[in-house]
Amino acid sequence: MSTSLRFLAAVLILFLVSQHATGQPIMRIPLKTKTLWSTDDVALTNDNDNTYFGQIMVGTPGQPFNVLFDTGSFDLWVPSLKWPKPRSKKYNSSKSSTFKRDGRKVEIRYGAGSLKGFISNETVEVGGLRIKQQPFIEATEAPGRRIYERPWDGIFGLSGLSKSSITGTRPIWRAMMEQGVVKKKVFSIWLRRYGDSGKEGGEIVFGGTDPAHFTGAHTYVAAEGPHNMFKISSFFVGKIDTKVCSKGCNAIVDSGSTYIRGPSDLIEKINKQIGVAADCSNYDKLTEVISFTIAAKTFTLTPRDYMEKRNGKCKSVFAASTTDLWQLGTPFIRAFHTVWDHQTPGTVKLGFAKSK
Ligand SMILES: *[C@@H]1O[C@H](CO)[C@@H](O)[C@H](O)[C@H]1NC(C)=O
Ligand SMILES: *[C@@H]1O[C@H](CO)[C@@H](O)[C@H](O)[C@H]1NC(C)=O
């Protein structure tokens, strides 16, 4: 055998072994992205950022929906036939052989608005992985309308323990782990960095990580509770330790948020310090970096990570929260590829590595 053939054979064996070892190849779901900035709806002028979504199938045969994969909420919902938004995809239970009626009425509040609907059970398919008897919400209305204006059809909640604290049903990621549709109890999210061109918005991987999208090793931190909360142990503006997290700040990674939210007094100081001019006049001059320490490792956000520039307007992604909880949204995930690792029973670890 020539050297290259021998090499090929070795690679093939390795490939077959790894396929066998994991049983199930990892499932990569490409995420599309759409900018909400240039909408004429006045209520949306704050949502000047990219939103990310990917496709799932509900029912048998599968009815396709674009969903936001949201690590900040528990439940799965798609629009029902009653959903009033025109041109929206709507789930028709009469077309599905796997539909099971439940009918309990539910209501959910999100940062971006609230939602009403009822529970049904269905087979849900995510990138070829089939989850059976999954309770989900057939949404009937979204009071306040803001959800109607989104470019996606529904939300795929990825948080929660054995039961959603909103609907009392088992969240779909828990079902995926319990039904063994993923062999490795890990999922990970990569979002394309802000300002990079191309249609590819990112990727969510069920069952592992995609080495194409991070550099170095992940730093892991223990997380707990239904939202996978963890500690930030210091918070720097430039070289100055603000000391606000010296006793530990609670944080979550929220892929459903386009902001980095924190306590309002500190956010106000940060925004004053970084000094983003709304007309972008100082865009190229900004240098201040913002750093967090998580599990003894420093994670630094540069102006490129925390600034948004669209249509000649600039703003910072730092926004005030009504609580003490830090919510690290899509600007954080764009900078740091994030892993949710549930492999050790009873515990969850979050891992962060530089995104690429
Ligand atoms: C729902 O599906 C049933 C069965 O295919 C069909 O008869 C009905 O017209 C559909 N409803 C709507 C609103 O599309
Ligand atoms: C819906 O699914 C859940 C969990 O898989 C199951 O416990 C429940 O009995 C199902 N409900 C119906 C109406 O089939």
UniProtKB/TrEMBL annotation:
Domain of life: Eukaryota
Pfam families listed in its UniProt record: Asp
GO MF term (any one): aspartic-type endopeptidase activity
GO biological process, one term: proteolysis
InterPro entries: Aspartic_peptidase_A1, Aspartic_peptidase_AS, PEPTIDASE_A1, Peptidase_aspartic_dom_sf
Disulfide linkage: C280-C314
Alphabetical UniProt keywords: Aspartyl protease, Disulfide bond, Hydrolase, Protease, Signal, Zymogen
The species this protein was found in: Eruca vesicaria subsp. sativa
Residues the record marks as active site: D70, D254
Family that this chain belongs to: Belongs to the peptidase A1 family.
UniProt-recorded name of the protein: Peptidase A1 domain-containing protein
